[in-house]
Amino acid sequence: MLRFLLAVLATLAVTQAAVIATSVYLHRGLAHRALRLHPVADWLFRCILWISTGQNRREWVAVHRKHHAHTDVPGDPHSPILDGFATVQLGNVALYRRAARDPAVVARYARDLPADRWDRALFDHAVVGLAIGIGILVAVLGVAGGLLAAAVHTVSYLLMSGAINAVGHAFGSRPHPNTSTNNQWLAWLSFGEGLHNNHHFAPTSAKLALRRGEIDPAWPIVRFLVGRGWATVRHEGPRAKQPVAA
Fold first, then answer.
1. CB-CB contact of 37 with 182 (8 Å)
2. Which among 81, 90, 148, 228 would be 20 to 30 A from 138, CA to CA?
3. Quick one: angle between helices 126-166 and 2-20, nearest 10?
C-alpha cells in the first residue's frame, strides 16, 4: 500500500513539475518573452523538461509560435477546427512532431533560440534525458512502480497538452474576440493554460487570469521567482496584441 501511494505521489509530482515548466518556462518565458528567467532558473527548468518530457525547447517554441501566427486557419499545426477535436485531443503529439520535424518551421519561428553548449551536450538528447528520468523513478519506486509511474505520467502529460489545444479551441467561454476559449477547470489542471482565450487576446501577458474571478495557478509561482530575483516580468496585464516573433 505504501509503495502504491508513493507511486501515485511520484506520478503527480513529475506531471505537475512538467506542466509548470511547460507553462512558465516554454510558454510564457520563451515562446512569448512574457518573463525573463535568471540563467540558473532557466537551466533548472530545462533539466526538469529534459528528464520528464524530453522536449526540445526550440521545436516547442517554433510550433507554438506557428500556432499563434496561423490560429485555426490553414497552417495551424494543431487546430481542432481544421483537424477535428479527437485528432487534436488524442493525437496532439503526432501533430506536434509533424510540424517540429520541418526544419523550416524551427528556422523561422525559433531563430532567436540557437542551440547552446548545454543543448548540444545534454538537452538535445531526449532519449538520454528520459532514460535518466525513468531511472530515477525505478530507483525510488522499484522496477514495476517506476515504469508504471512513468507510463501514467506520459499519458497524463500528453492528454493535458492535447486538451489545451483541443478543448481550448472548441468548448468554453470567449470573453475576447478570438477563436480560443477559457475553461477555468482546465486552468486548474494545467496551471493556467486553460485560460486560452485570455492568452490569445494578450499573448505577452505573464499572467493568464485577466478578469475578476479567474485564477491562474501558475501566477504565484511566477511571483515567487520574481520575489527571489530569479525572474523579471515583462507585464502582467493585457496589452494590445503584438505580432509573434518569426
1. no
2. 90
3. 80
